[in-house]
């Protein structure tokens, strides 16, 4: 099998060769007083219409920074993007001038955030915040914008939308606020929706409601969804394919069924093994030893080597490329064969 | 871990209402948040009781009541037969030695200006009889070792540790007075996924070593299942179902428990299209103005007239082997968490 440093899963065919959204060899750095933090180190992934890509990773893995780079909402400086491309329908967004970029942002590529309370403005009514999308991007009048806002609140199933359009964010529960965020993000029928931990702050029963809503909206409009999360359960429920991130890199790329059946990277395997399972009751849980890497002092070679049970000498010195290990799979581990065999056994 | 003998913690009809006041000069009470409204259970030595429920169901208020950090409106909490809810002064201090707490957020529950040694050793300042002054440093170092930290790091500050290590410091502080009961309020939910298993293993090892009883409050149902001997499910200030872990997870009888379990995403994509899922409509009602009768009836698909008129008690019902608070309790295997 051939070695390659950038692996893109095959396109679904709807757009020919070019996927709807393609991130290619993206690097993001932050200049801090302690030095340059390499938050994203050569990340590549792609998304097709109607598809759900889950980006899985822990805090500091670079999953949210990648999303912010796609949206163009990084503060630059301190951030900078020394290399890489973000192609939307074949156009590199990173090279676009700001006015063209803002035509894409929110209209064609939209985003929802984890914490809906701090993402909404507390001093404006939810109706005016949803309607703002139409006033700014479509030049709608206040009255039309409000009418549209009510329609959208109905669409995300907020009960009594007509009465509640004049309420403020604090008058809604956490789940309803997340629905308002979703209403704003789908207002202009985007082709790509990036959801950054959309349900992390919510209870499980509300989480189930929100995930169901997102799936329905996706079916209606065939948009591509990038779901950023650390929850292996949510991923298994909704994703078509997965990119696992660790220390600013993608360490494994696969279709959802493949990765849960047999992970090909020791980190993915460790995460799956540490989920408490019914038959392990009373036994010690498998735990990945050590702790996530410090981005200011990344380990040499493979960033996962200090915690890895498959480590050999060359892992300390030689960073593994993202090996293509199948038509829809890749793994950044020198010993992916052993990991894969161990997963089957 | 098998629980044996007499209960060391007995909770009976525990109620906590927070008054809602209006007016600045002429303050008058206009209502009350019924955070905990009649909760009863026992905890035996060496046992883990998991408490699950969604935000606002009163599980954290319950933890504070057990620790006597809040005074109950009514009801009783007994530790080894001694009442803690009404205890004052020296009596309260003595009872409290036996029940300690591990907090949710290891970033805000440790004082950033104190060294680790001072944080873990602070309980000895209050309970000087446990460790004489000259002996404290050694005791703290022993505790650091017990929770898997380097004893030489006794003079470091919290910011020099990672989240998982800070939670270990919090656990060491909880162990300092050799309590019999530890209340863990969401002890792993602020930690990274790869670190959670480490802390859960540590808690289980300590339980075996010191014969601890845990009240384990969490919203992650698979973690609760792994660590608990018994599980209580709370909804809007009430315990709606209480039983052995296998009974709650494999044969839940209360509709809310069934909905809660079915909502948990299963980390296995195979068969996800066929999975049965009960999606509750709307949000939980306000605890200031809970529905009459059964509090879950406004979101329940089984609700009938009797549910609005008569409050179902937490008791063993026909066809089930554990207590549930539903007029129409019926076991139903939903999903395997």
TrEMBL record, chain A:
Domain ABC transporter per the UniProt entry, residue ranges: 21-272
GO biological process terms on file: peptide transport
Keywords (A to Z) from UniProt: ATP-binding, Cell membrane, Membrane, Nucleotide-binding, Transport
Pfam family, one: ABC_tran
GO cellular component terms attached to this protein's record: plasma membrane
InterPro entries assigned to the protein according to its UniProt record, in alphabetical order: AAA+_ATPase (IPR003593), ABC_Ni/Peptide_Import (IPR050388), ABC_transporter-like_ATP-bd (IPR003439), ABC_transporter-like_CS (IPR017871), Oligopep_ABC_C (IPR013563), P-loop_NTPase (IPR027417)
Record carries keyword Transmembrane helix: no
Organism, as annotated: Streptosporangium canum
NCBIfam families hit by this protein: oligo_HPY (TIGR01727)
Molecular function terms from GO: ATP binding; ATP hydrolysis activity
UniProt membrane topology term: Peripheral membrane protein
Family per record: Belongs to the ABC transporter superfamily.
Subcellular locations according to the entry: Cell membrane
Name assigned to this protein: Oligopeptide transport system ATP-binding protein
Chief place of localization: membrane
TrEMBL record, chain B:
InterPro entries named in the record: AAA+_ATPase, ABC_transp_ATP-bind, ABC_transporter-like_ATP-bd, ABC_transporter-like_CS, Oligopep_ABC_C, P-loop_NTPase
Presence of the UniProt keyword Nucleotide-binding in the record: yes
Stored CDD domains: ABC_NikE_OppD_transporters
Source superkingdom: Bacteria
Domain ABC transporter positions: 9-261
One GO BP annotation of this record: peptide transport
Database matches in SUPFAM superfamilies: P-loop containing nucleoside triphosphate hydrolases
Keyword RNA-binding included in the entry's annotation: no
A Pfam family reported for this protein in Swiss-Prot or TrEMBL: ABC_tran
Listed GO MF terms: ATP binding; ATP hydrolysis activity
UniProt KW keywords: ATP-binding, Nucleotide-binding, Transport
Membership in a protein family: Belongs to the ABC transporter superfamily.
Protein name: Peptide ABC transporter ATP-binding protein
